[in-house]
Design brief:
alpha+beta, binds zinc ion, seven-stranded mixed beta sheet, single chain, 2 domains
Length: 496
């Protein structure tokens, strides 16, 4: 940290004390002073606004760090909140430490700034931060009263939910920390878990592992939740087995809202030491600049909206922003009208993945008397309902496979079955959607068909083929208007 940024409040200047505890905390006015100075010094990469006033009339800051010389279209959006629990002040100093590191002149963070737009609420709950008392208004919890559609009953919560709706963040991290008696007690540091809340966990283990490894380099120890407590978390615990699980509360916290509204990779971290939190968060941001194994694009793995074994409906688009809008549209609403299915296993060099929004076909897939012949029936149905289709080619591709079962899935019923809302018989999409097939082995070459017609013959349809680890991936991106046909089949013919 040679290029340490100087500012007058100097808790960090003395290095970190042995326990890692903060001994002093800057006031809200002092924090504003730091931000004011940064804004002048780093006008190309730092800005802040007052998102609104707290219940006691204090400023709620919203900071943004990014390379402002580069358009945001292809950046990943990350939202970080700190001090949602008012008694937890060291998350605020952790956020300041993080920003200090992010503003430095070195290639590692410069790359993050080019590729990631980081929005930070460093002190989400200034009343709780300042008064450090359970009696101050809203000192306990910003997210009190959240629900999964993004309602909040606190002013401060509204600002955060507003940011989630605006940013549709790929990554959302809520930073928590030492509670009130910070001079006497230590919180266990952990990443991606909070005991007893299922909505604080990450759905991606690699990111958590990478963050913890980064902290371990500097000597910090992390609790791993289920991993090192050898205990599962569960929502519906069978009576009599309560003591065998982490119990989960019904409450909704900020990561829960981000997951629900934006399909964000969202979770909490616990921080006892500012530096531990900052280095873990830097690593989390850095991962947004990398291409993950199996991913088509650089950035966080958040595009799979509807998985079904080896086939998946994904958000699609050329830029990160396109995919973000697609993701929000499918995730929040449209995907519930889809029913989709695949030949159970990739066989003999060909595989198909069908989707439908037609209730009659969704029902048909579940009620068909001879499931073994469902592929055959699918082609018949397709030929009657879809204008542009080459049934001969489809039959040729799958001639030897008509005896194999097709599996079908509806996101609403959570299993095999027709969507509950069968009154919706036509779905419109403003954005593209992708159909993906992945195979757990290497493939040398593949041909792509949509409704039996080579994909190259469709305007505006993009095809992608790539590998990750030992997986092979095949994907077509369909413009939103394709969904108006109500049914379609993506097929690949592959050669190993
Ligand atoms: Zn907390």
């Amino acid at each position: 940290m040679n290029s340490r940024i100087k500012y007058s409040w100097n808790r960090f200047e003395d290095g970190f004390d042995k326990t890692g505890y903060a001994r002093e905390f800057p006031s809200i006015a002092e924090i504003a002073e730091i931000f004011g100075r940064w804004e002048k010094q780093f006008s190309d990469r730092f800005r802040y606004v007052v998102a609104g006033k707290s219940q006691l009339g204090q400023d709620v800051f919203r900071c943004e760090i990014s390379d402002f010389g580069i358009a945001d279209d292809d950046k990943q959006n990350v939202l970080i909140t700190a001090c949602e629990h008012g008694g937890e002040r060291n998350p605020t100093t952790t956020a300041i430490k993080l920003m200090e590191m992010l503003l430095e002149d070195n290639e590692r963070v410069a790359k993050i700034r080019r590729k990631v737009r980081t929005v930070i609420f460093p002190c989400a709950n200034p009343d709780g931060y300042t008064h450090f008392s359970p009696f101050a208004a809203n000192s306990e919890c910003v997210y009190a009263g959240y629900d999964f559609v993004g309602r909040s009953n606190t002013l401060e919560g509204e600002y955060i939910v507003g940011a989630i709706k605006e940013l549709i963040p790929e990554l959302m991290i809520s930073v928590h920390g030492t509670w009130r008696d910070y001079e006497k007690s230590v919180v266990q540091e952990d990443t991606g878990v909070a005991m007893a809340s299922i909505f604080s966990r990450s759905y991606h283990k690699y990111l958590i592992e990478q963050m913890n490894k980064e902290g371990e380099k500097f000597g910090f120890a992390y609790a791993g939740g289920e991993d090192d407590d050898e205990r599962l978390i569960a929502n519906n615990v069978p009576a009599g087995c309560e003591h065998k699980f982490y119990s989960t509360g019904p409450w909704v916290n900020t990561p829960g809202v981000a997951y629900s509204l934006a399909h964000s990779l969202a979770f909490t971290i616990e921080v006892a030491n500012d530096f531990s939190g900052a280095v873990r968060l830097i690593r989390a941001l850095e991962l947004g600049t990398e291409r993950w194994q199996g991913a088509l694009y650089e950035g966080y793995p958040v595009n799979v909206i509807a998985p079904l074994g080896l086939s998946r409906i994904v958000s699609a688009g050329r830029s990160a922003q396109n995919r973000r809008y697609s993701r929000a549209e499918l995730w929040n609403d449209k995907i519930r009208n889809f029913c989709y299915g695949t030949i159970q296993y990739p066989l003999k060099g060909a595989n198909l993945f069908y989707w439908t929004t037609l209730p009659e076909f969704s029902a048909f897939t579940t009620s068909h008397p001879e499931k073994r012949l469902l592929v055959d029936s699918l082609f018949d149905f397709l030929s009657r309902n879809c204008a542009q289709v080459n049934i001969r080619k489809l039959r040729k591709l799958f001639n030897e496979q008509l005896d194999y079962p097709v599996s079908a899935y509806s996101p609403v019923t959570g299993g095999y079955g027709k969507p509950k809302d069968s009154s919706v018989d036509r779905v419109e999409l403003d954005n593209a959607f992708g159909l993906q097939i992945r195979l757990p082995f290497k493939v040398n070459d593949a041909k792509f068909y949509y409704n039996g017609i080579p994909v190259s013959e469709f305007d505006g349809v993009e095809s992608h083929c790539w590998s990750g680890g030992n997986w092979s991936y095949f994907q077509i991106d369909l413009p939103g208007e394709f969904v108006q046909n109500g049914i379609g089949v993506f097929a690949i013919e592959y050669f190993v």
